[in-house]
Design brief:
CATH class of the largest domain: Alpha Beta
GO molecular function: ATP binding; microtubule binding; microtubule motor activity
Helix content: 40-55%
Biased composition (Polar residues): 480-491
Family: Belongs to the TRAFAC class myosin-kinesin ATPase superfamily. Kinesin family.
Number of domains: 4
Shape: flat
CATH architecture of the largest domain: 3-Layer(aba) Sandwich
Organism: Neophocaena asiaeorientalis asiaeorientalis (Yangtze finless porpoise)
Region (Disordered): 432-536
Length: 745
């Protein structure tokens, strides 16, 4: 292949991987739809706009009146299900295969962007793209058991060109000390200081979504009562490793779900104050976004102005990067909003000119690579070691001649030559461990009986003495066994030692087995379970003793606070009665003074000593009353908090008792074997739903079925559970803040 042909092939290959951004239009349903001005094509991909000429411009009027926009689809009166199937389903499917994805909602204020992206959290059927993406991700994870997939999420808000973490209110996150910044790296763009949260199940992801939604900045607007005043980016990070292959390669991807703030014409909206400032920042950032889109659509442009604003900088990977991108343009189909509709459709047509290059994000685990490098070094070391062993063996074979031990004629000839002694050892090696030639000194020669044989006889005799009367061994038998072992060619010192060790282990294990105590038998379960009051007393003394102790301590503290509050109330009532009596006495002195004359000759008021003391006393009583009343307010706040703790402990104590009672007396037959010693389930480790349902009555069973058989199906359980938990958490925080403010007062 020539150089020119290769260049053409490479160019065609690159062109094959490039794809254009998909752009859809969703029309907001309205009773005053402009049917004469807005028309749809038969292919459901074309939208035509017709505008009547302004007669005030005179006869010569070159005003453009007709526009036609070709998009990937027009969603008119479409349900949330149809929108998701058309727009987002394929993007999410490819994201789990390693492709990045971005779904963006654009349009004017009040056109339905947030409804399209998030939906109505009060109704499961009206949920938007974002909750459905989370459901699809976790559903696809369950369908891929051969992959270990990790999911993390983050939620970013851009408000007035400032970055905010919508999940920073979580207790384990806390506010960031340093302001968040956008950082570029070879791996892409990321937000420094933005918290990323690991989610192992669908309900946790929904909880994070609802937590972020409650922290979004919204404001009332002429076009929308709950208008989003900021850009929000919800990002899902996916990392997939293979469970079957120990490969260092794994794939990563991320899904950006962008809900842009709505553009508006300030001349129409007539916004003022803070709303005007927000609208200015929103229009400015959307204008920079459109400039970046125009530059991306122009193939001749080299520089793309991504850093003009925080929005375009944060979306640098998504705009024209290596991801699958989909734009949903929301328009308002009324005649009064036709100018904004044209502006939104122009943006969508410009977005269709942008091309992306989707590619799988493959990464390599450095730990596995290092481990394989170490393994390769060890393999090379083994090869070198085996080569050295072969060289040593070949050298020894060239230097020495091997003699078969069963060839007695050759052995006797060698012994006569003085090269080998009577025990078969080479001359010059007293221990018989190495090679040696020559005549060894007489002092170094071993005796007729080798040391190993003497040790073996001594060990056998000691073993026979230990066995005693149970297995007596005579001296002749001992000699016979010894001689028998000596005549066996394959018996060596190592084999003898192994035999002795086996005998010792056998003799030492047998008495242990006989002395081991018998396994304790569990007491049989009574045929009729005890009543719950009786079992509850046993539970409080055994398994629930710690919870019961905490419950009693909290209850005693609550009673002590109530007693103090009662005493304080009595003191306040006594002070109030004394104040009333003092006021009556002062009124009596005042009336008496009025009768006698309030002033003396010089015009000064006449107050006797008794009335003066009553005034001082009234002042002190009022001071005491305020002090006692403040103490009473503090005690009431403490009582409310202690009551909450007592209720919480009581609920936990009763729940633990129900679990223990059902485990102990209502466990079905299929779980009894698993609960025995050595089984796979221990008491307290059974599934909570299985335990709670053991002792439930018809009403409890009906409530549980009512929860599982929801109108929207079982898939809606995690959605509603996450919403309820988020609401309970925020209600609890509001209550605690109110208590703290009351305590400060």
């Amino acid at each position: 292949m020539t150089t020119e042909n290769f260049a053409i092939f490479f160019f065609l290959a690159r062109m094959g991987t490039r794809k254009k951004v998909h752009a859809f239009v969703r029309v907001k349903p309205t009773d005053d739809f402009a049917h004469e001005m807005i028309k749809y094509g038969d292919d459901n991909k074309t939208i035509d706009i017709h505008l009547k000429k302004d007669t005030r411009r005179g006869v010569v009027n070159n005003q453009q009146t007709d526009w036609s926009f070709k998009l990937d689809g027009v969603l008119h009166d479409a349900s949330q299900d149809l929108v998701y199937e058309t727009v987002a389903k394929d993007v999410v499917s490819q994201a789990l295969n390693g492709y990045n994805g971005t779904i963006m909602c654009y349009g004017q204020t009040g056109a339905g962007k947030t409804y399209t992206m998030t939906g109505a959290t009060e109704n499961y059927k009206h949920r938007g793209i974002l909750p459905r993406v989370l459901q699809q991700v976790f559903k696809m994870i369950e369908e891929r058991p051969t992959q270990a997939i990790t999911v993390r999420v983050s939620y970013l808000e851009i408000y007035n060109e400032s970055l905010f973490d919508l999940l920073s209110t979580l207790p384990y996150v806390g506010p960031s000390v340093t302001p968040m910044t956008i950082v570029e790296s070879p791996q892409g763009v990321f937000i420094k200081g933005l918290s990323v949260h690991l989610t192992s199940q669908e309900e946790d992801a929904f909880s994070l979504l609802f937590e972020g939604e409650t922290n979004r900045i919204i404001a009332s607007h002429t076009m929308n009562k709950n208008s989003s005043r900021s850009h929000c980016i919800f990002t899902i990070y996916v990392e997939a490793h293979s469970r079957t292959l120990s490969d260092e390669k794994y794939i990563t991807s991320k899904i950006n779900l962008v809900d842009l703030a709505g553009s508006e014409r300030l001349g129409k909206s007539r916004s003022e104050g803070r709303v005007l400032k927000e609208a200015t920042y929103i229009n400015k950032s959307l204008s920079f976004l459109e400039q970046a889109i125009i530059a991306l659509g122009d193939q001749k442009r080299d520089h793309i102005p991504f850093r003009q604003c925080k929005l375009t900088h944060a979306l640098k990977d998504s705009l024209g990067g290596n991801c699958n991108m989909v734009l949903v343009t929301n328009i308002y189909g009324e005649a009064s909003q036709l100018e904004e509709t044209l502006s939104s459709l122009r943006f969508a047509s410009r977005m269709k000119l942008v091309t992306t290059e989707p590619a799988i994000n493959e990464k390599y685990d450095a730990e596995i690579i290092n481990l394989r490098q170490i393994q390769e070094v060890f393999n090379q070391f083994r090869v070198v070691l085996s080569q050295q062993e072969q060289e040593v063996e070949s050298t020894l074979r060239r230097k020495y001649t091997l003699i078969d031990k069963n060839d007695f004629a050759t052995i006797s000839a060698v012994q006569k030559a003085g090269l080998v002694d009577d025990d078969g050892h080479l001359v010059g090696e007293p221990d018989g461990q190495g090679f040696g030639l020559g005549v060894a000194p007489f002092s170094t020669r071993p005796g007729k009986k080798s040391k190993s044989k003497k040790m073996f006889k001594e060990q056998l005799s000691s073993l026979a003495r230990k066995e005693g009367a149970s297995s007596p061994v005579s001296g002749k038998d001992l000699d016979a066994s010894t001689s028998k072992i000596q005549l066996t060619p394959s018996s060596k010192d190592g084999d003898v030692k192994d035999m002795l060790l086996q005998d010792r282990e056998t003799s030492s294990i047998e008495p242990l087995a006989s002395e081991s105590p018998k396994e304790e038998l569990r007491p049989p379960r009574p045929s009729t379970p005890p009543t719950k009051p009786v079992a509850f007393e046993d539970f409080k003394n055994e398994r629930g003793s710690e919870i019961n102790r905490i419950f009693k301590e909290n209850k005693s503290i609550l009673n002590e606070r109530r007693k103090r509050a009662s005493e304080t109330t009595q003191r306040i009532n006594a002070i109030k009665r004394e104040i009333d009596m003092t006021k009556e006495a002062l009124n009596f002195h005042k009336s008496l003074r009025e009768k006698q004359g309030e002033y003396e000759n010089k015009g000064l008021m006449i107050i006797d000593e008794e009335e003066f003391l009553l005034i001082l006393k009234l002042k002190d009583l009022k001071k005491q009353y305020r002090t006692e009343y403040q103490d009473l307010q503090d005690l009431r706040a403490e009582i409310q908090y202690c009551q909450h703790l007592v209720d919480q402990c009581r609920h936990r104590l009763l729940m633990e008792f129900d679990i223990w009672y059902n485990e102990s007396f209502f466990v079905p037959e299929d779980l009894q074997a698993a609960l025995k010693p050595g089984g796979s389930i221990r008491p307290g480790m059974m599934p909570l739903s299985r335990i709670v349902s053991l002792g439930e009555d018809d009403q409890d069973r009906f409530s549980r079925l009512q929860q599982t058989m929801l109108p929207e199906g079982p898939d809606s359980v995690s959605f509603y559970n996450a919403k309820v938990k988020t609401e309970q958490k925020h209600n609890y925080l509001k209550t605690m803040m109110g208590l703290q403010q009351t305590h400060r007062k």
